[in-house]
From TrEMBL:
A Pfam family that the UniProt record links to this protein: ABC_tran
Signal peptide segment: none
InterPro entries: AAA+_ATPase (IPR003593), ABC_transporter-like_ATP-bd (IPR003439), ABC_transpr_CbiO/EcfA_su (IPR015856), ECF_ABC_transporter_ATP-bd (IPR050095), P-loop_NTPase (IPR027417)
Key words of the record: ATP-binding, Nucleotide-binding, Transport
Alphabetized GO MF terms: ATP binding; ATP hydrolysis activity; ATPase-coupled transmembrane transporter activity
Domain ABC transporter: 86-313
Protein's recorded name: ABC transporter I family member 11 chloroplastic
Length: 313
């Protein structure tokens, strides 16, 4: 089963131009299942079971405890990296075969369960950066890792490189790439169809239920056509697809784009809840609406230079 799918990333920008509704950010090699384009925008596309690249060994990820999934029991976000911190250090990027410097020594960090926002002019390099964070392309130099800290504030071990399989990413307008005619099929599109391995299926079903509760989709029938959902609920569905794996880092590219005011408010409210459980990094131009939930913000300047800066609102 593990060897069944092998998704190879290709240029995601190129992928977005595809109109067939079939995965296009990844080359599908020797596999019997299709991949929806919305999942192509996810690094989970590497392996539907583990969230890792298909050729890596399968290590089931332990579900979080019940209490850690209960929003009411969540702790307030703190700015110190008390437990773990996602860190990017001196990352530069030149597309292979070019002399273009799209990112220049980008460094920043984001404590777990906090909300970071990157803003900046069109063409400055925001999407390029999130593609590196998601493992879709590799930095020319620099590192991306998770640092863990003890109660004394000192690192407890050497930093671990951030595995692309532990990053969830939702690109702009994810609903454009829905391919199934019901919610359940949409969420489970890339899942194994073979008979057997009941334990794995039960595990996936539990994760699915948790993800659906997390994004507040539990009141929606799983038979509903995803295209018939409201704008805000479509975004919830796209998030649920990513949350099945409980990513160490959830990246959202323009999560409010194209929504009416009510759906925008709905998504902001949802993100406010989600940041109690997840580390979230957003690229957006909608600074005013997101300001209330932003813990850290950076401006990407033309030429791929990132500077920490308060929101200019
Ligand atoms: N593979 C590539 N080869 C050459 N240039 C590229 C490549 N990928 C992106 N670029 C260029 O790099 C610059 C940064 O692009 P990027 O999409 O990261 O900007 P952005 O800040 O996300 O813009 P927007 O807000 O419009 O999405 C752009 O000028 C883009 O044309």
């Amino acid at each position: 089963m593990d060897g069944c799918v092998d998704f190879r990333p290709i240029d995601p920008k190129e992928g977005r131009k595809d109109h067939q509704g079939i995965q296009s950010n990844y080359k599908l090699l020797g596999c019997s299942v299709r991949r929806p384009r919305n999942m192509a925008s996810s690094v989970f596309a590497f392996n539907p079971l583990t969230g890792r690249r298909a050729r890596e060994p399968v290590t089931p990820i332990a579900p979080k405890s019940r209490s850690s999934l209960n929003f009411r029991n969540s702790h307030a976000v703190k700015f110190k990296c008390e437990h773990s911190c996602f860190e990017v250090s001196n990352v530069s990027y030149q597309p292979p075969g070019t002399e273009l410097s799209l990112l220049n020594s980008v460094s920043f960090s984001l404590p777990e369960k906090s909300f970071g926002l990157i803003f900046g002019r069109s063409g400055s390099g925001k999407t390029t950066l999130v593609q590196l964070l998601a493992g879709i392309s590799k930095p020319t130099s620099g590192s991306i890792y998770i640092k863990k800290y003890g109660n004394d504030g000192n690192p407890v071990q050497s930093p671990e490189p951030l595995s692309s399989g532990r990053v969830g990413i939702v690109f702009q307008f994810p609903e454009r790439y829905f391919v199934a005619d019901n919610v359940l099929d949409e969420v489970t599109f890339g899942w194994p169809r073979q008979k057997g391995d009941l334990q794995m299926k039960e595990h996936l079903a539990l994760r699915l239920q948790r993800a659906i509760n997390w994004v507040g989709l539990s009141g929606i029938s799983l038979d509903r056509d995803p295209h018939s959902l409201s704008g805000g609920y479509k975004r919830r569905l796209a998030l649920a697809i990513q949350l099945v794996q409980v990513p160490d880092l959830l990246i959202l590219d323009e999560p409010l784009a194209g929504l009416d005011w009510k759906a925008r408010a709905d998504v902001v409210k949802l993100l406010k809840h989600l940041k109690k459980e997840l580390t979230i990094l957003v690229v957006s131009h909608d600074l005013k609406e997101l300001a209330a939930i932003v813990d850290r913000s950076w401006r990407m300047e033309m030429g791929g230079i990132l500077r920490e800066e308060s929101l200019p609102i």
